[in-house]
């Protein structure tokens, strides 16, 4: 009978088979044959010495120790003196100290160092599992979507994501934040999240808010801790913060950052593009990603909403208040950025509410202007401009030559298409005419809100070489064809004027029935009119003929020009003059 041994050890199930066979009355040889080992092994099993080392700690080596000469004498003392030493550092030290003697012991050093640190190393930090109660804690943090460039209307969009989460149910909210971490961004994002959730937790936890303090714009009259405390007090939340630089203390929101950003990245891959028409379109994608995450825990979310505190009636102001006077150039200066405003506000003092993404100007508690908030992103520059041609187009129309030398000329043009049109106008017309045409086009784009249509019309007319100021105005109904009403006239009898040409006979007797002619007595103080000679018949006839010719309607005799005509300009002009087109 052929027996089988497995590395000198008998498997457990073989022993069980042997013992069962012996209990049923089989001999040692028969039972060993059934179990698959020799009769001698069966004898050792029954004697109890078939596994003499069973339960014994392995204190022997099957191969020689390659670090026997240096571990206890050199490497271990180095670890005791500096527990932060890494295995790679010790291996490289061995290579330098003993060249060629320890070429392939890196893995051995790594295992030996790991075992030594487990036995003699310093205690490690413990992560405790926390128990969350419904309605107790909400967490806030800012995060950045790294590795992906979002573009709005073809331009890179620098932004952060404000992320809020309820610790118990995992309900989440996220929104776009422009301009970096700030208390204004935290205030707006948190309040939007609370109103979107429909309730307020008892505690709110966030980081140390150091970045928000640096972005307060130098306003140190009210410490950030006071602002944060006032915000939490308004919503009846207990403010809590984790320690600076210890992110895992805010782990209830740090870990979900990764899940949210991963879902956004996957949705962008499915979309096939990172370019959005507007910020609202990008925010809509984020909202859909958040909705899918919230759909994972509907039961716990509904359970926690029952424990949330009710919302207050009013929000805390989530903006910073400044004042600025509109200059004669129709501009205001806010945080080293020059903004244009409607010219009707020149000379007025505006109250400005600075949000993270916009500026709203108030005059006598009425909102009069809303501007996008611009920040200086280039560290080499200290100032920037936000010029909107719609604010000053009407005033610029009265002074078109100002467009030629205005320091904002490039910013006045809406986009690159308009800048190319301006270059073409300067080549086709003289500068004054080109400025008039461009300013008129900007005025039409402002008053009729047809920026794209006006640009398309200018390009088409320039290609056809038929652009004039009159056609531009007529195309957009600034000029219309004058349609005069049809008038019906009746020509009166001209024979009454013929009587002036016929002189009555001097010897005609006056009828008795007619009254004697009335004569006017000369005025003693009347001034002389010049020549006092008696008017002859010939002179009277000439005067009457001139009068008749001037009064007759449709007289074929044209009146002579009393002044000589000017000489005509030379037809050899280098450029067209838009005023004469």
TrEMBL record:
Provide the GO biological process annotations: DNA integration
MF terms per GO, please? nucleic acid binding
Q: Which domain of life does the protein's organism represent?
A: Bacteria
Q: Where is the composition biased (Basic residues)?
A: 572-581
The protein in question is named Putative transposase
Q: Which UniProt keywords apply?
A: Plasmid
PANTHER family reported for this sequence = INTEGRASE PROTEIN (PTHR35004:SF7), TRANSPOSASE RV3428C-RELATED (PTHR35004)
Q: Where is this region: Disordered?
A: 506-540, 552-581
Which CDD domains does the record match to this protein?
HTH_XRE
Q: Report domain Integrase catalytic positions.
A: 130-318
Native source species: Leptolyngbya boryana NIES-2135
């Amino acid at each position: 009978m052929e027996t089988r041994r497995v590395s000198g050890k008998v498997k457990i199930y073989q022993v069980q088979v042997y013992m069962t066979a012996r209990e049923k009355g089989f001999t040692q040889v028969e039972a060993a044959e059934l179990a698959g080992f020799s009769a001698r092994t069966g004898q050792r099993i029954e004697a109890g010495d078939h596994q003499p080392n069973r339960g014994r700690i392995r204190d022997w080596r099957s191969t020689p120790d390659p670090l026997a000469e240096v571990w206890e004498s050199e490497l271990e003392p180095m670890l005791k003196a500096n527990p932060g030493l890494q295995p790679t550092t010790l291996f490289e030290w061995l290579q330098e100290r003993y060249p060629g003697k320890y070429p392939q012991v890196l893995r051995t050093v790594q295992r030996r160092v790991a075992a030594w640190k487990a036995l003699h190393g310093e205690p490690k930090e413990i992560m405790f599992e926390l128990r969350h109660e419904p309605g107790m804690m909400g967490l806030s943090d800012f995060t950045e979507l790294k590795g992906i460039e979002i573009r709005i209307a073809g331009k890179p969009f620098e932004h952060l994501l404000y992320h809020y989460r309820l610790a118990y149910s995992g309900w989440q909210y996220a929104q776009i934040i422009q301009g970096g971490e700030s208390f204004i961004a935290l205030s707006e994002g948190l309040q939007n999240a609370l109103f979107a959730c429909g309730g307020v937790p008892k505690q709110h936890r966030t980081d140390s808010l150091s970045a928000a303090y640096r972005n307060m714009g130098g306003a140190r009259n009210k410490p950030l801790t006071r602002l944060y405390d006032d915000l939490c007090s308004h919503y009846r939340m207990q403010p809590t913060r984790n320690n600076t630089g210890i992110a895992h203390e805010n782990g209830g929101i740090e870990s979900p950052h990764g899940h949210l950003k991963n879902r956004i990245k996957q949705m962008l891959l499915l979309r096939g593009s990172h370019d959005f028409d507007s910020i609202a379109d990008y925010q809509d994608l984020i909202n859909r990603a958040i909705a899918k995450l919230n759909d994972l825990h509907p039961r716990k979310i509904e359970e926690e909403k029952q424990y949330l505190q009710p919302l207050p009636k009013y929000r805390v102001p989530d903006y910073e208040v400044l004042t600025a006077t509109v200059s004669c150039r129709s501009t205001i200066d806010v945080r080293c950025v020059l903004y244009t405003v409607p010219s009707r506000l020149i000379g007025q003092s505006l109250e400005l509410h600075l949000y993270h993404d916009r500026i709203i100007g108030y005059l006598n508690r009425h909102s009069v202007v809303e501007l996008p908030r611009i920040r200086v992103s280039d560290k080499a520059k200290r100032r920037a401009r936000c010029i909107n041609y719609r604010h000053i187009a009407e005033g610029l129309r009265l002074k078109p030559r100002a467009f030629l030398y205005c320091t904002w000329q490039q910013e006045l043009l809406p986009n690159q298409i308009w800048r190319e049109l301006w270059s073409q106008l300067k080549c086709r017309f003289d500068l004054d005419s080109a400025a008039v045409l461009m300013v008129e086009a900007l005025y039409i784009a402002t008053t009729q809100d047809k920026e794209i249509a006006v640009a398309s019309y200018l390009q088409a007319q320039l290609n056809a070489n038929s652009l004039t100021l009159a056609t531009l105005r007529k195309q957009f109904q600034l000029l219309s064809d004058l349609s005069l009403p049809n008038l019906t006239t009746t020509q009166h009898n001209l024979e009454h004027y013929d009587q002036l040409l016929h002189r009555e006979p001097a010897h005609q007797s006056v009828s008795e029935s007619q009254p004697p002619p009335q004569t006017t007595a000369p005025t003693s103080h009347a001034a002389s009119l010049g020549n006092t000679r008696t008017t002859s018949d010939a002179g009277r006839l000439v005067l009457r003929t001139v009068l008749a010719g001037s009064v007759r309607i449709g007289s074929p005799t044209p009146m002579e020009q009393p002044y000589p005509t000017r000489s005509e300009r030379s037809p050899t002009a280098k450029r067209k003059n838009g005023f004469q087109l």
